[in-house]
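Standup notes
- DV: blocked on the single-chain target, sequence here:
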Amino acid sequence: MSIIGINAAGKTTSLKLLNLALEIVLNNKGLNEDLVPSVFLNEETEKNGIVMTVYFYKEDKVFELISLIKYKRNIDGEIHFYYENEVLRSKAKSNITSKNNIFDFTNKINYKEVKRNKMSKESLKVLKDDDSIVITETRDSGVTINTMLEDVKDKINYVQGIVNENILNVFDENIKKLERIGDDRDFKVEFKNSQTRIQSHIISLEEIVSSGTIRGQRIIKNTITALKR
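- DV (later): unblocked, structure below
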């Protein structure tokens, strides 16, 4: 499978969302393990939350997991994600008679539904508020995945010093300046036709500058260095 699109079209964000779903369902990771893309950190999602729907197949059953994800900030401003509620539905493979009703869970024959806010206190004791109830179905499946995303520690070396504006404009003509501040994990970003100067940590840099621009500028710089030699 490939994800193709122009620069800054949302390819990396799509990959992060796919990774989020797989890590939750297959690796049973919690929301606060650096999984939720920071693009969702805004007033709208802080107020109303994010609804994530995932479909998966296991042992002759099709599952639908609907999760309402919210976040809150502590007194230090740190963000904590949690599940406001979840619904996990399953139906037997025999319920599927055509491709048109694969995702239809209205037929209650061979059907099961679990709601997070209806689970017993005993069941919820083994779950943290950022653990999905899907664990009850996939914990012992023996299927896991390797993360599809690069480690932040690897990404930090993509940008060194001040990046030449002409190189940046190959990928994004709106960027005026991209600079790594010393050996720190912070960066300065300036855009054309704007007086605003943004200082960003490496973790949120890709929410300001596209992943393609960050990687592409390094490829060009390495190419120039190789040709000079």
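- Follow-up: The mean pLDDT is 84.
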